[in-house]
Amino acid sequence: MHRIVILGAGTGGTLAANRLRRALGPHDASIICVDQDDRHVYQPGLLFVPFGRTGLNELIRPRARQIHRGIEYRCDVVESVDIFAHVVHLAKGGELAYDVLVVASGAVLAPEETEGLTGPGWMEKVFTFYTPDGAAALAKAMATFSSGRIVVNIVDLPIKCPVAPLEFCFLADAYFRQRQLRDRVQLSLVTPLDGAFTKPIAAKHLGGMLSERGIELVTEFNTGEVDGTGGRLISFDGREVPFDLAVVIPAHSGAPYVAKSPGLGDALGFVPTDEHTLQSLAAPNVFAIGDATSLAVSKAGSVAHFEGEVLVENIQRFLKGEPLDASYDGHVNCFIETGSFKALLIDFNDEVEPETGHYPGRVGLPLLKESRLNHLGKLMFQWFYWHLLLPGRNVPGISSAMPLKGKDRPVAKRREEVAR
Amino acid sequence: MSVETVAGVSLDLNEEGFLTDPSQWNEDVAVALARREGIDPLSERHWEVIRFMRHEFETKGAGPSVRMLAKTSGVPIKELYELFPKGPAKLAAKIAGIPKPRGCI
């Protein structure tokens, strides 16, 4: 009997555990899933908390309840992994030996890496909506904010859900319009990127949407210090952006144990992973999924979902001694909430950037275009998340491989891809 | 894409001025590329970073981000900005003749 240990019971860990349990019989493998608490947060929902559109109680469920029968759930802190001895060291529960390890412990915030960020003003005029407590505290500050300058600042990449800061700006614009305060509130997005997004077509489109809404875009700003008392963001090259309220997305790292485990992670605590097979580069019997990997793909739930299919196939192949399937194509898919009950949808991978068209085929949700249908899609997604994505079900019509058929693409480009 | 002769070497450069073939690089090329970016002369500390970037590229296939560079090279982030103003990872990569570090989105 093979012993499979999964570190992390968030999006990636839960769906991997449930998919593996279905794929492998009870006598083929034991599956143990470890996490440090029993609060599974629906993270996409945190975006709506500061605007009073949802409460934390609607977003948090017990982790153990999302994990199917036949999987053991261990609530413990991982101290370190010995990839040479194939053992996980736990804070209170001793050791767990494994034949296959899945690192699914996500990304954590590292606000302490930015000078002053957690100093005076933190949780008073400097907030983040990337944690449940931060989002709830920000909701209170937003409700009483009636004039001044709000900056939304991305400290460094990678971050979870890279479109969330943009969505925050769009929602803030709509929120203050509705409260009839928009002319008294200035909004700025301050980013280290050279545009609103990395991919050119989407960057142009989203940049246009910011300027239409009167939201200032400050680019190539690498935050070196946050001065909460004086209300200033200061970049490493000495530029300053003043604020009355700052919404900061701190730098991200991998789970602390990853960096403490020799050979497992990189300097930021993410696990170097093969971008197509999801096998770690650390050891052949260690795999990684979701935000925990060092892949240059978005840290997003849709990625963990698309990776899940490939990961489970490859763990089975590894256990049988077969060659791995190198089929993960970097597929990402996300709804971008644009305010006033509309949203856009983007769908892309390493090679094909977000384009217009429809998803998943010629008839479907409009791509890179604002619509009410996409907003409903985003709201529906919360149901999908708990009932299809975490149980590890395939969503009909939405598979791991990125679809091309609904995208508006130049004919020549399509021919080129068919020829390849 | 353009071809330019820099320090006596014919270089293939992309639209942002990054070498498309890192093997065309040598130390004289680095000096000339740095001068074009307003860094002249290159100090020993600059060279430490440039060599580190080349090493990272050769062993990992990609140059590091600024934060990663600061954590792994031993040169603190503030000093990196003094050495390579604006964007250390981008500028050091350009002078080291390796591709622009990939964005993470």
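qc> Chain B has five helices and two strands.
qc> done
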